[in-house]
Amino acid sequence: MKLLSQLRTSTFQLALLYMVVFATSVFLLLAFIYWRTAGFMTAQTDETIEAEIAGLAEQYRGRGVNGLITIIRERVARDPNAKSLYLLTTDEYLKLAGNLNGWPVESQSREGSWINFTLDESLGWTGPPRQARARIFEVQGGLRLLVGRDVDDLNTLKALIETAINWGMGITLALALLGGFMMSRSTTRRIEVINNTSRKIMNGHLSQRIPTRGTQDDFDQLAENLNQMLDRIVYLMEGIRHVSDSIAHDLRTPLTRLRNQLETTLMLVDNDEARDQAAKAVAEADQLLATFNALLRIARLETRGNTTADLRPVSLGLLVRDACELYEAVSEDKFQTFTQDIDDEVTVEGDRDLLFQMVSNLIDNAIKYTPEEGEIVVRVVIESGAAIFEVADSGIGVPDDEKGQIFQRFYRVGKSRSLPGNGLGLSLVSAVAEIHQGTIGVFDHHPGAGHPGLRVRVTLPRYNPQKRRVKSVAATAEAGQPEDYSV
């Protein structure tokens, strides 16, 4: 898979493009060299044959047929390796002179044509078959003359050049491909570091920064700019968070006093209308206090980060079962079907109070946004070695384009704005899941239905006693304390 992902990178594709351009240039250069070299050697062979033909024609004009036969025999005698080929025959193909015993099949063509043929036993050739090239024409008096050259060495040289070109192209492509892969791998590693850090930051680890190599290359400059941007974003976010947390903290006390005064007024007034108004005011004050308390809880969780120092083994199955007992009566009031599929053996490492808050918020939301006679399903199971807590309902659901936003502070789906709430419950759920190194998935419970419902799936790491013991040993060794084997 890593190799396939490497091949899909833009860096490798760019290197591949350069490789194609470079290989094409090399191919054109080698093709030109081959064309010039092979063409030169072929032309040189043809010129040699033409020169011999010219010499024989001169001898024929000066000495006649007998002189032509004599000069052919002399040339054959001087060339025992038969590099030059001669054949003089009558019009009925009876041999008069030459080192060939017969006409090649390829010679059945018009006068003056060039032929390529094979020297073999049918032509009186005693050695292994070889390639030859010749030209034929008619001599006055009906005689036929063939003059040629053994070109087997020339063809062998051409084959060697072609093989060298093919190997050169193959080696060029292999080196270019290897170079492109190495360059892509180096670049991809740098980009993957940036991607990994970015994913951690998107998951809420705002303290992460992109590492640099100190080379001040373009990747280092990009990393430094991104780090400075992150520092600025964190500074602005901390400022906004500090203001909102300060407002929530500062207003909680006067709101509490106001609420207590309204409650005292509620007990003192004897007018029904005034008592009703005071009761509404107390309810509004309670809602405001719940909002501020939720904001402060989320702020504390986000400040706490992902520390696992005070996390303990917690039976997620039993915890969810306790929460279901608490909310089952509320579900019965709405005549809802409340189904439980809980494995009591599922254990996670976490903060029991925070986990109970997360579980309670999700079950409460499912009941709140599911109409009467609806369906609620709560599951706790082990899947792929992880602990799964899931709450599904048959309520109004969440549009696909809003599923990624429901964990933001104060965000409320348009369909639910008329129902009571402050839009902080799922933000609290997200913060608790992050502290426990968990992930949250949101899906339709009944896809395509009029009431698609909602299925919220929280995946948490399963408790591993051995892993916890290793952490404990490492912590005690670092602190210089005796090892504690208790869990």
From TrEMBL:
<dbReference type="Pfam" id="PF02518">
    <property type="entry name" value="HATPase_c"/>
</dbReference>
<dbReference type="InterPro" id="IPR003594">
    <property type="entry name" value="HATPase_dom"/>
</dbReference>
<feature type="region of interest" description="Disordered">
    <location>
        <begin position="467"/>
        <end position="487"/>
    </location>
</feature>
<feature type="domain" description="HAMP">
    <location>
        <begin position="185"/>
        <end position="238"/>
    </location>
</feature>
<dbReference type="InterPro" id="IPR050428">
    <property type="entry name" value="TCS_sensor_his_kinase"/>
</dbReference>
<keyword id="KW-0902">Two-component regulatory system</keyword>
<feature type="domain" description="Histidine kinase">
    <location>
        <begin position="246"/>
        <end position="464"/>
    </location>
</feature>
<keyword id="KW-0597">Phosphoprotein</keyword>
<protein>
    <recommendedName>
        <fullName>histidine kinase</fullName>
        <ecNumber>2.7.13.3</ecNumber>
    </recommendedName>
</protein>
<feature type="transmembrane region" description="Helical">
    <location>
        <begin position="164"/>
        <end position="183"/>
    </location>
</feature>
<dbReference type="InterPro" id="IPR036097">
    <property type="entry name" value="HisK_dim/P_sf"/>
</dbReference>
<keyword id="KW-1133">Transmembrane helix</keyword>
<dbReference type="Pfam" id="PF00512">
    <property type="entry name" value="HisKA"/>
</dbReference>
<keyword id="KW-0472">Membrane</keyword>
<dbReference type="Pfam" id="PF00672">
    <property type="entry name" value="HAMP"/>
</dbReference>
<dbReference type="GO" id="GO:0000155">
    <property type="term" value="F:phosphorelay sensor kinase activity"/>
</dbReference>
<keyword id="KW-0418">Kinase</keyword>
<dbReference type="InterPro" id="IPR003660">
    <property type="entry name" value="HAMP_dom"/>
</dbReference>
<dbReference type="InterPro" id="IPR036890">
    <property type="entry name" value="HATPase_C_sf"/>
</dbReference>
<feature type="transmembrane region" description="Helical">
    <location>
        <begin position="12"/>
        <end position="35"/>
    </location>
</feature>
<dbReference type="InterPro" id="IPR004358">
    <property type="entry name" value="Sig_transdc_His_kin-like_C"/>
</dbReference>
<dbReference type="GO" id="GO:0005886">
    <property type="term" value="C:plasma membrane"/>
</dbReference>
<dbReference type="InterPro" id="IPR003661">
    <property type="entry name" value="HisK_dim/P_dom"/>
</dbReference>
<keyword id="KW-0808">Transferase</keyword>
<keyword id="KW-0812">Transmembrane</keyword>
<dbReference type="InterPro" id="IPR005467">
    <property type="entry name" value="His_kinase_dom"/>
</dbReference>
